[in-house]
Amino acid sequence: MAMIFTLLLHLFLFSLATASTSIHDLLKSRGLPAGLFPKNGVKSYELGEDGLLQVYLDWPCVAKFETRVMFESVVRANLSYGGLIGVEGLSQEELFLWLPVKDIIVYDPSSGLILFDIGVAHKQMSLSLFEDPPLCNPQDGLLDKNPRKEFGLKFRDEFSFSISDVNSFC
Fold first, then answer.
1. What domain of life does the native source organism fall in (predicted)?
2. Structure pTM?
3. What are the structural domains, with CATH classification, of the chain?
4. Which residues contact 38 (CB under 8 A, 6 or more apart)?
């Protein structure tokens, strides 16, 4: 009986610790910069025992780092030390296209770099861009469209080609 009580007490204390920790503090404790998620609009988050992180925002929104980033109302990823892997619900604007962010990784914090995998490319940026959480706001009807459906996987599937295809045109 004492063992069950101890187990329940540990679960209760763990849930209190998780509830009182902000998403920004959680990210820092896992070797990631605090500013990956917005300062405003984060309603709550859940972190499963398997590492699945689900962040709930009050609304979909757009923030500005080096480029614009769009957060859907729910962002999911597998959280490990130094990485958010298999990201869903986050897109980054590149050359007027919104591309889904797949992974966010800090391999070596001393390098001062963070890697964003946007499917068609890997983009390295300065960690200093993500020290402070940005403000996130809906903008200019941008959120009326679903960028992942318009330009994400569909774009890549329809227009894929290999280097040999390019060489045959030269």
1. Eukaryota
2. 0.71
3. 2-160 (2.30.240)
4. 57, 61, 63, 71, 133, 134, 135, 136
